[in-house]
């Protein structure tokens, strides 16, 4: 496996990974999968900002992806980002999420980011929160019932990592 910057040729696979989570789960609150044009704009925007958009490449196949995007649009938030990590079905539990998060955090540090926020849908699994805790994220709050998808109300858990104090 190689973690590398995403390229436009990866976006079809990235879109397919994400579409699975949009249609089959509540871990994202999107109800319609983004178009290829949406993904192209996201890649261009994050590249222009110097923020990481990475893929896990396993023998030429995109097993998953991760990126960091601005947390909020107001200028005072410019040193804070939100991380995103998705693995394709069949690629979870193999360490790829850990490798992607480690690389995204390194890319964020290189970009001068100070705070990384994780917004995790409480879908009944602790896997994402546990992964983030392993990298120094701490619990920052819970928003109860803020999402409604597939006939159920879903909470989000907020976690935060201060890169200025993080070791390792």
Automatic annotation (TrEMBL):
EC number from the UniProt entry? 2.3.1.183
Cite the GO molecular-function annotations of the record: phosphinothricin N-acetyltransferase activity
Acyltransferase: present as a keyword of the record? yes
Record bears the keyword Protein biosynthesis: no
Ranges of residues in domain N-acetyltransferase:
1-164
Q: Enumerate the SUPFAM superfamilies for this protein.
A: Acyl-CoA N-acyltransferases (Nat)
Origin species: Streptosporangium album
What is the name of the protein in this document?
A: Phosphinothricin acetyltransferase
Kindly give the Pfam families that the UniProt entry links to this protein. Acetyltransf_1
InterPro entries documented for this protein: Acyl_CoA_acyltransferase, GNAT_dom
Q: Which domain of life is it from?
A: Bacteria
Q: Which CDD domains match?
A: NAT_SF
Q: Which UniProt keywords apply?
A: Acyltransferase, Transferase
């Amino acid at each position: 496996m190689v973690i590398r910057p995403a390229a436009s040729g990866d976006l079809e696979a990235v879109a397919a990974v994400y579409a699975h989570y949009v249609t089959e789960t509540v871990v994202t609150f999107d109800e319609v999968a983004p178009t290829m044009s949406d993904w192209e704009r996201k890649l261009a925007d994050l590249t222009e900002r110097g923020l990481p958009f990475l893929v896990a490449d396993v023998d030429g196949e995109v097993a998953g992806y991760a990126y960091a995007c601005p947390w909020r649009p107001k200028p005072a938030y410019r040193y804070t980002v939100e991380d995103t990590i998705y693995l394709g079905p069949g690629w979870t539990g193999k360490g790829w999420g850990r490798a992607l998060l480690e690389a995204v955090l390194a890319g964020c540090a290189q970009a001068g980011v100070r705070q990384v926020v994780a917004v995790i849908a409480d879908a009944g699994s602790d896997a994402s929160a546990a992964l983030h805790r392993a990298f120094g994220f701490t619990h920052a709050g819970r928003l109860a019932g803020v999402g409604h998808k597939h006939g159920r109300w879903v909470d989000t858990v907020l976690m935060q990592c201060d890169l200025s104090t993080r070791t390792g």
